[in-house]
Structures are given as C-alpha cells and as structure tokens.
Design goal:
Radius of gyration: 19 Å
Strand content: under 5%
Shape: globular
Structural class: mainly alpha
Distance between the termini: 49 Å
Length: about 180
C-alpha cells in the first residue's frame, strides 16, 4: 500500500507541476523517477518514453502507467495513471471556468509567454542530457541527427521515425554480432 501511495503522489506532483505536455515532463520524470526514486536508469527512461510515444494515448500517461506497472503490477499502473491525470482534471476544470474571463488580460498573456519560454529551456536541457546518455557511438549519433532533422523538417510521423530508428538499431547490432563471430 505504501508503494502505491508513493507512485500516486510522485506522479501527482509531476502531473501538477509541469506545463507543456509530455515532452516538458521529461526533466521532472528524470529527476523523480531516475534520480530520487531510482525506479529506472536514464536509458530505461528513454526506452519507456519511446514506448509511451509509440503507443496510443498521452505520452505522460503511458509513461506513468508503465513505470507504475513495473513497480507494483496492475495496481501500480493504475496508481501511476491516476496520479498523472488527477492534476490535469482539476486544472482543466478550473481553467475552463476561469480563464475565459481573463485570457485577454495583458498580465495573463505575458505570464503564459514566460511559461512557454521556460518550458522550452527545460525541454532543451533534458534533450541534451538524455542524448548524452542515449547516443553511444557514431552510428547512434547519425540515427539521432537523422531522426532530429526528419522530425523537425519533414512531415514524417514520429511513430515511423521511432520504428525506423528501432530497426536501424537492430540491424546495426546484428551486424556487430556477426562481425564479432
């Protein structure tokens, strides 16, 4: 029961303190799940996040469900999911009732602009640190750079990029294993 509560509170905090969606949650996921709780390594978090991005649904919810399940089975997955979505349900309900009245106020517009800039900086910091953990060699750097450029400058769906990167990784490792033999 203690583990379930810990999962719920951890993901409640992540879901409640992060603006900007799944990508913006990466810094907090890394800090909480990897550094504080030790529930996964940076590499595992990258893998979990990639799986969460490839499966239907919201990335943050998929990630919290997976981590919760890994930590405490089905009940853990449910607690992780509920923790992640509870703040959104509360915030969206409040925002929907209040924001329409104040959305045109200059202070609100400027505050949201500042929040967007801060979220971008946090996302960039996380991408750099996760790239350091995930890119191990020149071929990995090539896959990373290709994926980044295609995701940024082409209309190719990200799921297709992730699948292609996975296939490239499999192919590279099979080739390396054959070369060792």
């Amino acid at each position: 029961m203690k583990k379930l509560w810990e999962l719920y509170i951890t993901f409640l905090r992540i879901g409640g303190l992060t603006f900007g969606g799944g990508m913006a949650m990466l810094p907090m996921l890394k800090k909480e799940v990897v550094e504080k709780k030790g529930w996964s390594t940076e590499e595992e978090l990258l893998d979990i996040y990639a799986i969460g991005q490839c499966t239907p649904g919201i990335i943050a919810v998929n990630t919290s469900t997976y981590i919760g399940y890994e930590q405490a089975g089905i009940c853990g997955g449910i607690c992780g999911t509920l923790g992640m979505v509870t703040p959104s349900l509360i915030i969206i309900t409040l925002v929907a009732t209040i924001l329409n009245r104040f959305i045109t106020e200059p202070m609100v517009i400027h505050a949201l602009s500042g929040i967007r800039v801060a979220v971008c900086a946090l996302m960039l910091n996380t991408v750099v640190s996760l790239a350091k953990a995930g890119v191990k060699d020149h071929l990995g750097a090539l896959i990373f750079l290709s994926g980044f450029l295609l995701a940024t400058f082409s209309p190719i769906p990200t799921i297709l990029l992730v699948v292609c990167a996975a296939l490239a990784g499999i192919g590279i490792n099979i080739r390396r294993e054959k070369a060792k033999s």
